[in-house]
Amino acid sequence: MTDTLAHAGLDAEVLRRDFLVLMAGALGAVGAASALWPFVASLNPAADTIAAGAPIDVDLSPLQPGQQITVLWRGRPVVIRRRTGEELASLQAPQDIARLADPASLAAQQPDYAKNWHRSANPEYLVMVAICTHLGCLPGFEAAGSAAVAVDNWPGGYFCRCHGSKYDLAGRVFKSVPAPYNLPVPPYHFVGDATLRVGENPPDSRFDFSDIVQI
Questions:
Q1: Helix (H) or strand (E) holding 198
Q2: Active site residue 163
């Protein structure tokens, strides 16, 4: 009986010791995490910087004709596409223009320097916010002739799979789709031969992205 009680006491002591070691380790981990958090947080952009929508520079040198990239500005996806000669030609084809709701970009969905047939500061490069003007879905690129788009002789462009809205390679919306406006163009300009600054106008423009009709 005495041996049993002694053994039970030893087990209790072992359990107590293990519990204290476990608690000490847990508290140490919490302390380490607390000490690390300010350092980790300091690596993220400040909230006021994000809210202000600071400009971002994009290196376009790797981008080949027919390729595109997507960057984030103010938390929004900005598509940058280097258009081919064939793609630019399609933007002026009468049969394709006839399909568009606002081919002349009359609605204020872009700065003045992008209010042209290619909706850009440089015809070769398309820069636009890829958020559908219907309900805010994300349209994706579909190449010319894509079977995913129910359009005869689809010239290539952007298709919203959520509700079927369609845009050409300048972000101009097609007729008879849910989306009412062309895709918006953010402020931007070239600060070098292959460097694009998104979020900042050229010196002679005062365009404010909040002035667009709809995002």
A1: strand 195-198
A2: yes
The strand ranges marked E within 4-133 are 56-59, 68-73, 76-82, 125-129
**Phi/psi of residue 29, each to 5°?**
-65, -40
pLDDT band at 13 (very low <50, low <70, confident <90, very high): low
Q: Which of 7, 118, 134, 163 is catalytic?
A: 163
Measured over the CA atoms of residue 132, residue 126, residue 168 and residue 187, the dihedral's sign is: positive
Please state, in angstroms and rounded to a whole number, the distance separating the CA atoms of residues 187 and 207.
Answer: 7
Counts for the chain of helices (H) and strands (E), in that order: 4, 9
Which among 150, 156, 209, 214 has a CA at the least distance from the CA of 180?
214
Structure tokens at 85: 């000669």
- Least Cα distance to 132 among 187, 79, 73 occurs for 79
Instruction: Express each pLDDT in 132-184 by its tens digit.
Output: 999 999 999 999 999 999 888 899 999 999 999 999 999 999 999 999 999 99
Residue showing tokens 């709809």 = 214
User: Which regions of 43-194 does DSSP assign to beta strands (E)?
Assistant: 56-59, 68-73, 76-82, 125-129, 140-142, 157-159, 166-167, 188-192
